[in-house]
Amino acid sequence: DLKFRFPAAADDTLKGIDIEAKKGEKIGIIGASGSGKTTLMNIVLRFYNETGGGVYIDNLKLTASHTRSWRNMIGYVKQDIFLLDGSIRDNIVFGDEHPDEQRLTMAVKMASLEELINSLPSGLNTLIGEKGSRLSGGQRQRISIARSLYRNAQVLIFDEATSALDNQTEQEVSEAIDSLSDIHKTIFIIAHRITTLRNCDRIYELENGRVKGVYKYQDLLDKVL
After folding, report:
1. 83, 77, 53, 54: which is closest to 66 by C-alpha?
2. Whole-number Å distance between alpha carbons of 91 and 120
3. Where would you tag: which of 11, 91, 193, 213 has the fewest CB atoms within 10 A of its CB?
4. Is it the case that residue 64 has pLDDT exceeding 80?
5. Per-residue model confidence as pLDDT tens digits over 98-127
6. pTM of the shown model
7. Residue-wise DSSP of the chain
């Protein structure tokens, strides 16, 4: 029964949202602009605090005292990612002064970056240029995924992460996301393109701050077509 109202607003932006995700599930969220998708994710990320209802983890309500530990469990991959003007390694370990090489290797593998890195003469030490200018859009997104995995994030949020990519690159990134299901990460995907949600366990459609429907991928495809 999650509700949220912006200060001085006349009406709630979220009006009693009920969404459930079990550990290891992949949940899709769709809806037109203004439906409440971004507000909902900002609450999950604890950038906003709900004004009614709550977010519960294993029946424990998230409060301000949990914010730091909860954020440490979350990886957030968005369309416009921040990259350092440094190496691939720098951008994955991101400030860790004593990188764990085993964890780094695992993050690279899970983010489907092995083939790219093995093809580069300098491997992980390859410089990517300002804002990742020497990489493709799909490669930049996979580095962002690897960064979240290196942090050992248990919950991954993809916020329109493939919307700016061409179809082929979107498919490559989607395959990298799909492979994460095998490692028991809980994944939320906010998407404009329905094809991005192909392997979701459930897809929630938001409209005017409410859950309009809950679908399987094929059901949603049939509805749209």
Report:
1. 54
2. 16
3. 11
4. yes
5. 888 988 988 888 888 888 899 988 999 999
6. 0.81
7. -EEE--TT-SS-SEEEE-----TT-EEEEE--TTSSHHHHHHHHTTSS--SBS--EETTEE--GGGHHHHHTTEEEEESS----SSBHHHHHHTT-SS--HHHHHHHHHHTT-HHHHHHSTTGGG-B--GGGTTS-HHHHHHHHHHHHHHTT-SEEEEESTTTTS-HHHHHHHHHHHHHGGGGT-EEEEE-SSGGGGTT-SEEEEEETTEEEEEE-HHHHHHHH-
Phi then psi for 30, rounded to 5 degrees?
-125, 170
pLDDT at 34: 87
The proportion of the chain whose per-residue pLDDT surpasses 70, expressed as a percent, equals 89
Beta 74-78 vs 56-57: how paired, if at all?
unpaired
